[in-house]
Amino acid sequence: MIVTGDLVTDPSAAAYERVRELLAPLDPPVYVIAGNHDDRDALREYFAPGERDTGAAGAPFQYSADLPDLRLVVLDSTVPGEEEGRLDRERLAWLATELAAAAGIATVVAVHHPPVLSSFPAFDEIGLPAADRGGFADVLAGHPQVQRVICGHIHRAFFETLAGCGVAVCPSTWLQSPLEIGMTEINLEPEPAAFMVHATTEAGVVSHVQPIGGVRRD
Ligand SMILES: [Fe+2]
Fold first, then answer.
1. What is the dihedral of CA 134, 137, 142, 147, to 10 degrees?
2. Which one in 25, 41, 65, 148 has a CA-CA gap of 20 to 30 Å to 182?
3. Cα–Cα distance, 86 to 44 (Å, whole number)
4. How far apart are alpha carbons 108 and 5 in whole angstroms?
5. Could you tell me the distance, in angstroms and rounded to a whole number, from the CA of residue 102 to the centre of ligand 1?
6. Exposed (0-12), middle (13-18) or buried (19+): which is 11, by Cβ within 10 Å?
7. Which residues, given as ranges, of the chain have pLDDT below 70?
8. What is the pTM of this model?
9. Beta-bridge partners for 160
10. Rounded to the nearest whole angstrom, what is the distance from the C-alpha of residue 56 to the centroid of ligand 1?
11. Distance, CA 218 to ligand 1 centroid (Å)?
């Protein structure tokens, strides 16, 4: 299970303890990524097993993990104290090195801020700068084993492509962004929560959106 960032609204020990408590009953291993509401070192403290190298204290929370059918590369797009994201030269160089180290293995890259525009200007203003999106695309173009880029941040499922790779943005398990193309103010509503399932097949990764709840047939 991959949690694509913003585990909490305001980072505190109590909030992260509550998240850990809620995730504990789940069977699959949990991989978390940093969102703009998260604290990198709290993620290290609460969600990074000791054997996983996630970077030094205060540094971007980044790591790779070998899943049964995939390699997962977790990239940190956050800037402490800011809502918008950055993928600076150091982080993109780290990504390129991680991808070059396992060129033949199907890979998913997880990053909180989508490296594509959302059609919601209010969110794009707190997204990644154009130069950083371009830099990310350049890294992807050189590593065709990346089968999907998965993201959070926008509170709504949408899909794009970047350098020939599918980008899937996960809806929220809490409030959603209503469908308002061109929205100029962030407005979160209690629309049905949902999550995504990325199935591995011989042909590649297939991404599904699964709403939680729904109407009864009878
Ligand atoms: Fe976010």
1. 170
2. 148
3. 20
4. 15
5. 29
6. middle
7. 50
8. 0.96
9. 167
10. 22
11. 38
